[in-house]
Amino acid sequence: MRKETQKLLVLSLLGLVSVNLTAQQKVKKDTIKGIDEVVVTALGIKRHDKALGYVAEKVGSAVFEETQNNNWAQSMEGKVAGLKIQTAGAGPLGTSRITLRGEKSMIMDHNYALIVVDGVPLGNSTTGSGTPAYGAGSGGDVPIDLGNGLNSINPDDIESVTVLKGASAAALYGSRAANGALMITTKSGKTKDGKLKVTFNSSSSFDTVLKWPDWQYEYGQGTLAKNSAGQFYYSYGLSPDGASTGGTSSAFGPKFAGQYYFQYDPTVQGQSPARQEWRAYKDNIKGFWRPGSTYSNSVSVESSNDKTSFRTSLTYLNNEWMMPNTGFDRFNFALSFAHQLTKKLKISTKFAYNTTKSDNLPATGYNNQSISYFMIFQNPNVDLGWYKPIWKYGQEQVDQIHPFSSYIDNPYLIAYEMLNGVRKKNITGNITADYQFNNNFSLMLRSGVEILNEKRTTRRPWSSANYLNGFYREQYIKNHEYNNDVLFSYKADLNKFSLSASAGGSIRYNEYVMTDYQAIGLKTAGEYILTNALSIPVKYPSPNDKQVDSVYGLLTLGYDNKIFVDVTGRNDWSSTLPKQNRSFFYPSVSTSFILSDIFKLKSNTLNFWKLRGSWAKVGIDSDTYLLDNYYSASNITGSVVAPTTYNNPNLRPEKNTNIEAGMDFSLFKSRLNLNFTAYQNVSEDQIIPVSLPYESGYSKRVINAGKIRNRGFELSADIYPVKTKNFSWKVGGNWSTNENRVMTLPEGFDGIISGVGDVVFYKMEVGGSLGDMYGFKLLRTPDGQVIYGDNGLPGRPGDIEKVGNAFPKWRAGLQNDFKIKNFTISFSFDGQYGGIAYSQSHHKMSEQGKLTSTLAGRETGMIVGEGVVQNADGTYSPNTKAVNISAYYGDYYRRANVETNSFSTDFIKLRDARIAYSFPRETIKSLGLEDLTLAVFGKNLWMWTKFPLFDPEVATLNNATITPGVEMGQLPTARTIGFQLNLKF
């Protein structure tokens, strides 16, 4: 009995069970109560959820195994209150922008949540192509989603993800966790008695385009030109019918009515010898896209006993994306091993090796080299097949077929010759030693590493619109991060009191360098090597190293397993801050009260009631190299470029203060579980660039200034309406809202923190919000009518105004899980309300008459804008001025008119669905199987939205920054249907 009592006491000290012992150390019959959920918190410390004074939501492995996303993070969309996973709609890798509880920083890239794998923080940086999303007419290249280290994490290896939302929850992780953290725990061996378990998981899925723009196919290419008989006509080149109208990108030509014109003839690669039927090719954009496919096969082997556990897995994924000749291959190897060397010493390690390879990933953005650019400019009367030969007769690799404009690259040239390749190797791992001195004292030593080595290649053939003599580029990226930490812990039970204290320190060092070789112009067409450059290739070395040293401590006090208090403190020394400000300290405190136990309220109706609250202050250091001014490499060999930003040698750390309170309920024998949370976050002394007068010699300077406040409310619920032996129904729901407010701004700051394409500007004003989008709007009367000028076109305001906000007012998700004997059926919806997005594609397609919304006025070629004109006496009269439709649509939907090209991003999506059948064990036992499950699943199966383009969850990849609220050459979103086989031996 004494030995068993000691075991229980140790478990109690570890926080895994609750025990009551008599003075004689005898165990009562009811010693072990219900064990509540254990979650992983900061530094990898496992805690009971009931003891936490903050929200820590846990997402199990089934979410990642069953949805089979190329990027693990997208499996969580809509399933956790306050969590937003957003991509730029830029291809199959789907690099994610992961945020919690809204935007806190004025700098877009400073709002990401920290990702921690098995207690080791990972870098979440992304290296872009160095090009903006909008580049039309400026030459250069386009952004490409080449992924980052997080893309390499294998979903099948994830055991669980604990979402720590506030600064309080992640206080011990320091500045990188100021926006919360996602704690990933990977799988390890869990079998009994040393038995070997083998799991095989295979899935095949197929993608089609979820939503298309509403293109019009009633009128073809042209400019409203009329022949001598006064009729609209079309002519490719000068012909007997009249002057050429085939050089325009606009679709204001004749109606498709069976007439015949001189058109482009692919057999002669010029004007047709005879007139041909004027017709629409309704598949001339959609036909370019193909069904995509993803095949994934994973096998794992695991075993464990009372001293040793191990698990190893291999996974291979092959993706062929919906755009021809694009996709990637990914290989994952993972190893987990733990061994109890002695009664006191345990050694464990986790290691993952991942490779990602692609010969071609699609480009995005509004510029040549992007298939989005072609889709915008494709005309209804142009057959897609005319482009398929790619090269003109006898001009292979020299001159492409682009018969309507030398500025619009051939789509098959983009797909098969303009290649964006990547070879990426990623290693993550850690080794941990746990030493238990006695029942009270323990020591943990851990060393973790993340090694990313990447080679990128970019090919642009001769006759490319932006590179007439071709282009070749090689980039080599080395991004290594080392984390070493030590943690000393003490635990004790003193009658009704429990105490746990931990103290430790860490050293984080990040070593980054990117070397960029560019061959601008190629001697020999089609030969992509640096020695084929017309001139000496340019080399751009870009180092970016950083080190943070830290000490920290955690004190946890508990009383009678009913009241808990946590106090933390951390001090950082960051290499990115000046010596006098390099050291900064920040604390946190949190508490929880189990009210149902304190007031003895437990019953069949109320099973659990918890009140929690927390406060934390977190210091945040700066980006690298903001203290001094540095010259950068020029594209002229041996020369440098002077800096345009004046850096600040006296920077201070930012301050982030978080307050959170909430309650958790469990009712009706845990059939209904509710969580309510209210929070406030205040970010001060943000490190931001502000404008300088041009005569200073700099465009910006870096300062500490500004105060941003976030307030929000979150609700989540799990409900079991039905729960019997053969049938159960579980409903999970969440809802969250966030209000962001700018409290103060620095004097002289124009408020513009970023912009896209010099059209949409993110501007802040005191009382406004981060995400406020500014741009030119329509002139309107006090009652909202559009004011037109004497020319019949909308009047133009003299300054930009607020158009709306990029971020929704609220988000919600709903999951349903049914189990009917051996069948499981699950599906989830999520949606949002209240945000807007500007669409560059809508502007250009409307300006050119490509959408059905531009059909009004086609019969006559004239239109009268709906609105008023202002009279000399200041009154208004209805507008009666008829204008040419091409002029009207070109002006009403002009690029700078953010109002007419911005739309609500409200949506409801059937995010995922799955039907699975698990064969009865007695049926498969003879085959030596423990489990055999077959499933069919789908993702993005249905969507409701008023957004006119591909997807309302729109963001722009602007270099490496994912910028919500702007569509700038977005690629289509996939609807996925797949099949899955799972075997366990």
Describe what this molecule looks like in 3D.
- There is one protein chain.
- With 985 residues, this protein is mainly β.
- The chain has a 22-stranded antiparallel barrel. It has a five-stranded mixed β-sheet with strand order 3-8-9-6-7. The chain has a four-stranded antiparallel β-sheet with strand order 37-38-39-41, with no helix packed on it.
- β33 (654-667) and β34 form a beta hairpin.
- α6 (840-847) packs antiparallel against α7 (885-892).
- It starts with a helix and ends with a strand.
How is this fold's topology laid out?
Blueprint: H1 2-13, E1 38-40, E2 46-48, E3 56-60, H2 61-67, E4 83-86, E5 97-100, E6 114-117, E7 120-122, E8 158-164, E9 181-186, E10 197-209, E11 222-223, E12 251-252, E13 260-261, E14 264-265, E15 270-271, E16 276-277, E17 292-304, E18 308-320, E19 327-340, E20 345-358, H3 371-377, H4 411-416, E21 420-436, E22 441-462, E23 469-494, E24 497-520, E25 538-543, E26 546-559, E27 563-574, E28 583-594, H5 595-598, E29 606-620, E30 632-633, E31 640-641, E32 645-646, E33 654-667, E34 672-691, E35 700-723, E36 727-744, E37 752-756, E38 760-763, E39 772-775, E40 787-788, E41 801-805, E42 810-820, E43 823-833, E44 836-839, H6 840-847, E45 862-864, E46 868-870, E47 876-878, E48 882-884, H7 885-892, E49 902-904, E50 907-918, H8 921-924, E51 931-945, E52 955-958, E53 961-964, E54 966-967, E55 974-984
Helix pairs in contact: 6-7
Helix and strand composition category: mainly beta
Number of E-type strands: 55
* First and last CA, distance: 38 Å
What share of the residues lie within helices? under 10%
Unreliable stretches = 1-35
Number of helices: 8
Rg on CA atoms, Å: 31 Å
* Largest sheet entry: 22 strands, antiparallel, barrel
Residue-averaged pLDDT, rounded?
Answer: 90
Shape: globular
Strand content: over 45%
